[in-house]
Structures are given as C-alpha cells and as structure tokens.
Amino acid sequence: MFDLSLVIDPVYIATIIIFIIGLQRMSHPLTARSGIVWAGAAMLIATLVTFLTPALSNFALIALGIVIGGGFGYFAAKRVAMTDMPQMVAIYNGMGGGAAAGVAAVHLLGPTHFATASLAVVGGLIGAVSFSGSIIAFLKLQGWIRPRPITFPGQQIVNMAVLALAVISGILVLFQPSWSPLTYTASLWLFFLLSLAFGILMALPIGGADMPVVISLFNALTGLAVGLDGFSFATPNYAMVIAGIIVGAAGSLLTVMMARAMNRSVRNILFGAFGASEETGVEIQGSMKAIEADDVAVMLAYAEKVIIVPGYGMAVAQAQQKVKELMDQLESKGVLVKFGIHPVAGRMPGHMNVLLAEAGIPYDHLFDRDEINPEFQGTDVVLVIGANDVVNPAAHRQGSPLYGMPILDVEQAKNVIVLKRGQGKGFAGIENDLFYRDNTRMLYGDAKETLGTVVQAVKKL
Amino acid sequence: MSDISMFWTAVCIVVLAAFTGYVVISRVPVILHTPLMSGSNFIHGIILIGAMVALGLATTLEQQVIGFIAVVLGAANVTGGYVITERILQMFDPGRKRPGKEA
User: Fold this and answer.
1) Where are the alpha helices (DSSP H) in chain B?
2) pLDDT tens readout for residues A379-419
3) Which positions in chain B touch A237 (Cβ < 8 Å)?
4) Do A61 and B49 touch (CB under 8 A)?
5) What interface predicted TM-score (ipTM) does this complex get?
6) Contact residues on chain B for A37, CB-CB shorter than 8 A
C-alpha cells in the first residue's frame, strides 16, 4: 500500500512557501487580509498531515489537547476587545514559548545525541524565558500587576546571576559531569525553573509604555526557540526550523524598528527601567485652565482646520465612534479635519490606525508624525484625546527622561484642547507642561461622554 | 548523509530562512507593525506540530504530561494567533463596509 507518511515532507515544504507568501501579503495594506487566510489554511493542512507521522501514538491525547487549547485560544481571541489586543498577542506568544520549552523538555527526557540535546537546551531556555516573560507582560498590560517598572537594588546583578545559573545548569544537563551533585532529571528541572525565573525577572523592570517592544522581542525569541526545537527529532523538522527562524529574524527586525520609532534602543528599553526615575529641578510655569464642552464645540465648528490627536485614553474610553461622529459633524460644516497619529500611539505601533479604521474613519484622514508635524503651525484647533506622552514637549528638553523621543508638536497650533479623565500623568509618569501652556485648555471627563456632549453642541450650532 | 554534511545543510537552511524573514519585513509601513507582529506570532504556532510529534512518540508518563501541556499551549497559540490577526486585518479589508459612513 502507498505509504501515506510520504506526503508529510512535501506538505511541510508547501506550508513554508505559503507562510512566506502570507507574510509577504501581510506586508501590504491591500493584500494583508488574504495573507493570514493563506497562512491559516497552510497551518491547518500541516497539522492534519502530522497525524500521519510514522509510529505516532497517543492520538486521543493529541486530539484532546488540540481541542482544549484550540478552543480556549479561539474563544478568548474572539471575545477580547480590540483595545486589549496587545496583551492577547503577548499571552499567545507566551503559550508558543511554553510549548517550545515543553517540546525541548520531552526531547531531553528521552534518549538524545549531544548535538540535538544542546540545541534543545538552548531552545528550551529561550522558550521558557519567552513563556514566563510574556505572562508578566500580559499581567502588566491587563493591569493585574503594577504596570510601572518594578525595581530593586542590585536588580541587574541578580538577573545576570540567575541567567548564569540557568546556563550552568544547562551545561550540567548536557555533560552530566561526575562532580555534579545533581542527578540528570534534577538538573533538568533546575534548568527550566531558573530559565522561567529569568523570564520573570527580565520583564519586571520594564514599564508599560515599552511593553510593545518587549512583546515583539519575546515574539522573536519564541520563533527562535521553535526553530531550534525543529532539530530535536530523529530527522529535523524543517517546517519548524524555517518557520521559526523566519519569525525570529522578522521579529528581531520588527523589535528594532519599533524601538527606533520611540527613539530608544532595545538595550536601553531592557535595562533602562524607563520611567522609574523622576526628573527633578524643573518647575513648570503657569496653571491648567479648564474649558466647558459647549465652548469647545464653538471653537471647533468655527475653525478652518482641526487636527485630532488620539491616544490610548481614547481607546480605553471606547470613544472612537464619537470621534467619528464629531468628524462627520465638523466636515458637514466645512471644517477640514485631519488625524495626527504618533507611531506608538495606543499600545502598539499601528494600534491606533486599527482602532480608528474599526470606527470607520477613512485612511486618507490619518497622517503619521512626519507628515502632520509641519501642519500644526497653521492649525486653528488641535484636539488631543487621551494622549499624553506623545505630545509632551519635555521630549525637546535635555535631561528629561523623554528627551529625544520624537513627538507631535501640537503646542505650535493656535489652540490646543486636551481631553483628559483627570489631572494624572501619562504612562511614562512624567509631568506634561503642554497642559500648562497659555494656548492650552483642559476638558475633563470621560472621553466618550464628553465627546458626546461636544457632538450634540456642534449639531445645534 | 554524513553528520558533517547534515550540519552544513542545517546551517544553510537557517541562514536562508533568517534572510527571508529579514527581507519580508523590511520596508513595512508602521501601520502594519501590529498585524505583522500578530501574524508572525501565529506562524510560530507551527510549534504545535512539534508538540504533536513529541506527545505522539512519548513513552514515559513524564513525557506524556509535558507533551500534552505543549500540545494545549501550541494549539492555543495557533487559534488565538490566527483569530487576533484576522480581526486586526479585517479593518484593512478594502471591501469592508464602513459603519456609520452615511451618517
């Protein structure tokens, strides 16, 4: 009879090709949607043919695992709100990392060669770090633990020591020297425990605003772990190797690009504990001046040009739809409305564009930082909705923790209106002197309710 | 194949795959960073097939337990990664009806 397992490798190769085409399509806005559908179909077929692997047993357990994990992943991802997308990416990435660590562990618990075992040790270390680190990232973004950097004296020394111990225990696993006090299994468990501990320690000092970069880094790490795990089979699974390494490389590049959009280096993000230190000695002149919704409506309706700068606060308040209504009202009165989108507005690059697109605001209204910055000078009113750090002029002042981050220069507009829940600081925890400028007015309240009032007031004019 | 030629084949594949990943991502507009991160998150869900084989060939109870956990995690990575990416990219679909357009 025809040996069905012969179809596995050709299918895996086809899967890889479709993955690459899918990623390629995801890199262009017009074809992006079809890209994931292609990749999804390839993944489904690859999963099905894997059941044909020779000598495979435990079929019921495999199927049960897929149903439990797949069901959970599916329903959780369907139900989550768009605003919570970053932490969902983090948690699914962590699960991939955990699976990679698990595959490495299963391999190391069986008979091994030195070469495959050493790759499994490296893959296991990286996968475990990505697993526990991503969980911390999830908890921080979800607000279940303090999102601000968690630091303690000697932190970096402790972190490095834990990593070093993890590496040493990994070496014990590989060489099993006679002087080692630990049995093989004991050193294996110790190795994974230390790796998981390092992942937690690595993510703790990172502030919420830097989380997207870190999620991207963990994403790249999981890819690398998956790629290395591909070698831990009797014959290398090149589908895993290639897909994993592609994600590792692409993810690393994405991480660097994100960090660059914030004018930070990856190194600085990982070891800087950003936002933990407070700038001292800078006195802010002036006071915050409040304004009422009706007055805002008048200012907006009789302006020639309005630029709206949305931030994460808008997303949290679910005010996108109200923003869209305001845009429609103003446009019907002949006001030119544009949106200025900072690359890291929201919680991930491009997150804000997605949220605005979801509300039905057309792309040609959205402008990125470099396009919109020269325009602020001739603008009558800038409406800042729930954004803070990305419009903080402190970024232009040497010595500020934000110094050097490219911002939206909204303070150059004739009038700036800031919609804000209260008088608190932004994610970076830095005082924003934009709020104290003479041409700035503060409109306090929940963004969704306040915008609703403004929209009604504009309608009546 | 000898071990040494297997080794160089593996190195070759890894280098080419890394290069491919680099080329596919470079010069991507910022607005697609999030969907691409989510999409590549889905793609490393291929760990599921590794977990399936690991569990399928597991002999000891220890291996079975860890392999089972790996399958659960890997499957969640696949379906969750897919749904999230699909939901994000839906917003980019040019044929999509825009809610409130006529308002």
Assistant:
1) 3-25, 33-43, 47-56, 61-90
2) 999 999 988 878 888 888 777 767 777 788 998 999 999 99
3) 49-50, 53
4) no
5) 0.90
6) 86
